[in-house]
Amino acid sequence: MTSIYIGVMTGTSMDGVDIVAASFDPLVLHGTHTIAFDPDLKDELMALTLPDDNEIDRMGKADVALATMIGHGINALIEKNQINRNQIKAIGSHGQTIRHRPEQGFTLQIGDPNIITEITKIPVVSDFRRRDMAAGGQGAPLVPAFHQAIFQHPSINRVILNLGGIANVSMLPANNPDDVYGFDTGPANILMDAWCERYTGHPFDENGDWATHGTPIRSLLDRLYAHEFFAQEPPKSTGREDFNIDWLDDQLIDWRNDLEYNELEDTPENIQATLAKLTVRAIKKAISRSGMENGEIYVCGGGAYNSHVLEQLRWRLRKNNWSVQSTDVLKLSPTWVEAVAFAWLAMRFVQHLSGNLPAVTGADGYRILGTITAV
Is-contact 320 288, C-beta < 8 A? Predict the structure, then answer.
């Protein structure tokens, strides 16, 4: 009987909860399901990523609400796809990150696994990041180990680029498993989505079309890129704590007070184009410094549908013969890659196998990631 694992992912963009049912060796998807956040819950989760009043009580309520939503979503996935529950070995639930502070040695994801287990009657593996962090790692990114297992090629250099709220890369040198590494490159959808919603009312810039109507502002781009994160060497990770709309507003105030400020450049479209270019610049730098002279870049996450960003990447990497395509080409939709990764991490936990890559996270060694909530 095929063993099936369920993966649940809620990312930095907070655009919904992605749920998949998968088996491995070979990878097969048995069902997918997405749940949109209730607007009030999304607002609360967003607010919890930054310090505020009455955090513990508010976090507790959100923890219960999110877990309840996930539990019922998993049941809906199982029923919709008529999956045999006896085949499901475990659920891998990442939860929603509301604080990620590797420099202080902690990270926090909510979405109570006890409630998910109670609703689904299936064991839940959760809390994936803190074991790596306890071993001296960043606790992120975790998906490069999955990318290596599924996507590494024996003769072609590959980069798996996840464009979620934060962009991260997995460097997969051809036929060289010991040299795989990865890290967060900086903001992706997290700033572009927030800016787009503020000025257009749309939650994201579909296809990057709005950004194409603007022109990047060099002086603003340089100011944003001066954030200390971009100068850090890997391993490194970041999140909404570092890059958020309030940070962007502060940078805009400073820029507008600068001698280089040009009022004619200061349009919402130009700022959106600048945010897109900020994402692309950081990714291009990461790939250029990888030591791989050419190869294939496969993009996943919501940003894989931002054709403007992908075209900018192709243009900036044109001299290096890098192709830029969606993971659809590898027969895995960009929408589901991260959720499948947490199904894979649940499988690794159940099989008592490590889930991290020390070269990626900076941990002292390989570790079995997660804790289990039994039925």
Answer: yes
**Structure confidence at residue 14 (pLDDT):** 83
Would you tell me how many other CB atoms lie within 10 Å of the CB of residue 243?
A: 23
Please name the amino acid found at residue 127.
D
> Domain count of the chain?
2
Expressed as residue numbers, the domain containing 249 is 143-330
Tallying the residues shown for the chain, one arrives at 375
CATH of the domain at 154: 3.30.420.40
CA dihedral (155, 354, 35, 33) positive or negative? positive
Cα 15 to Cα 36: distance, rounded to the nearest angstrom: 7
Please name which of 236, 10, 4, 252 lies closest in space to residue 110, comparing C-alpha atoms: 10
Bridge partners for 17 per DSSP: 10, 35
Look-up: residue for tokens 């130009």?
A: 270
Other Cβ atoms within 10 Å of 209 Cβ, number: 11
Q: Which residues of the chain have pLDDT under 50?
A: none
